[in-house]
Amino acid sequence: xxxxxxxxxxxxxxxxxxxxxxRPEAAGADPLLRRSDRADYQANGILALAKKAKANPRxxxxxxxxxxxxxxxxxxxxxxxxxxFLNITIADRAITANLAARYADTExxxxxxxxxxxxxxxxxxxxxxxxxxxxxxxxxxxxxxSVVQLLEFTGENVVRRHHIGDWGTQFGMLIQYLDxxxxxxxxxxxxxxxxxxxxxxxxxxKTARKLFDSDEEFKTxxxxxxxxxxxxxxxxxxxxxxxxxxxxxxxxxxxxxxxxEIQDADIVGESGYNDMLAETxxxxxxxxxAVRSEGALCVFFEDVLGPDGKQVPLIVQKSDGGxxxxxxxxxxxxxxxxxxxxDTLLYVVDxxxxxxxxxxxxxxxxxxxxxxxxxxxxxxxxxxxxxxxKPFKTREGETVKLVDLLDEAIDRASAVVRExxxxxxxxxxxxxxxxxxxxxxxxxxxxxSANRDYKFDLDQMVSLNGDTSVYLQYAYARIQSILxxxxxxxxxxxxxxxxLHEAERALGLHVDAFAxxxxxxxxxYAPHKLAAYLYQLASLYTSFYDKCPVLKAESPDQVANRxxxxxxxxxxxxxxxxxxxxxxxxxL
Length: 588
Description:
By secondary structure, the chain is an alpha/beta fold. It has helices at 7-22, 45-53, 57-66, 92-104, 138-153, 169-180, 195-214, 216-231, 234-257, 277-287, 325-339, 354-366, 402-420, 426-446, 458-461, 469-485, 502-512, 514-523, 527-547, 556-579, and strands spanning 33-36, 39-43, 75-81, 85-90, 119-123, 157-161, 291-293, 296-299, 314-317, 344-350, 375-381, 384-385, 454-455. Among the domains are: 7-90, Arginyl tRNA synthetase N-terminal domain (Gyrase A, domain 2, 2-Layer Sandwich), CATH 3.30.1360; 168-262, no CATH class; 408-579, Isoleucyl-tRNA Synthetase, Domain 1 (Orthogonal Bundle).
């Protein structure tokens, strides 16, 4: 089905026509609509036009009003306000008719697909091999997954990339330690897997790291092992591959708990670019973009200075011949631009890595790998804080394991569901508790602008009141309950001829803004804008529910029309929450 023109766009077009009739030189001018407490929409573009034409704003506004057609089709009334604003009231018929058009488009609700899609490679959810995932991995995964959903829904070609840490010095260290202490992981293959296996690997990593930092001879042996790994020594590679395979099993289990779909083909870690590293360095050095400094291959920047005032370089290759993160990231850019044909590279990465990516992107531009037709963007995110406003830790000061955090959220949510449940079995309570708990964690993250820190407060996250996913999920479940209770033969049906209550109008206008909100959130990589829209939608529905009886409305047509308003709101909530990666249970 074709996309549905929103009421705001229709009003924009109508006013633009009236402006053109008033002032031909204003053809194509933007009336600059916004929502207002005093009207459905307010146009303030008249002020800028009046200034440009050296005219009196109120007089010009009055001229425009004289060319606006009012009635039942679109604009019910328009009046001049203040210094030259136009306050616009939409006709009840137009609201209901537009919602009916969206309602008929069951899957997309009239949300358009971009006419000229590009290709975006999005780098997100980047755990490390042989290390347990912790709370610091939450934001990249959750934000990245939602941005993927938004981009794909609006028609963009999206290539997922999970740039896992699976290469480098730490693996030489791990392999060497295991070689010298073979009984540290003394279990038969297949005996343990998933979380237990990763816990063992994590313990092994910490022990090996302690020895690496304290024993110079072990450090030397470990670095020789890195050379063996990079050279493709079969035995070393075999041990490394076991670490990777075991870690992936664990990663998949965590992502499944997060209700995220991760495909093995999308996992292209640091090792995936190993064969490109030497060529990347050669190209940079031959082009003069990188130079040798004290044996290392470096890129210098005039605006990146250390405390001593000297330039701080991006080290692409170390003096001992080893490759740094920059070499891998630059090789990944080459692969994503030239092989995958991306025109947008999006990195969902901690804000603390901003300087690294600034230097990597600039290096790639100097080398000609990022042209004017390719955007490279770091979608930087802030830190997850505890209730005390400090980085989230356990009572013992350890980093919180992501699995433990999710399990606690599910337990808390299950208690809330059990307390409210009237006709749910224990199996259903467990299922809903998982959906509500995981949704609560995701929503708390996504309802905050990515670049801001936020406090992790499970008590607030699973609250039925306030800006929480639980509030939205219960609003959806309430609507489903009303729809189930409708008398036999009475179905949701739009009746544009009916006058609308103020609460119905407010709800309808907000539902109609869904397509614009999705487009804005996708264009700006801003899931928090969609989250804010959905919270307001649930709040407006609550007001409608309190003020407008549905099943006991005054006439059969009004019952059907209010059921229609309920259902189109539910569909919008369902679709919007899905774009955030959150489930909406039918019963709670």
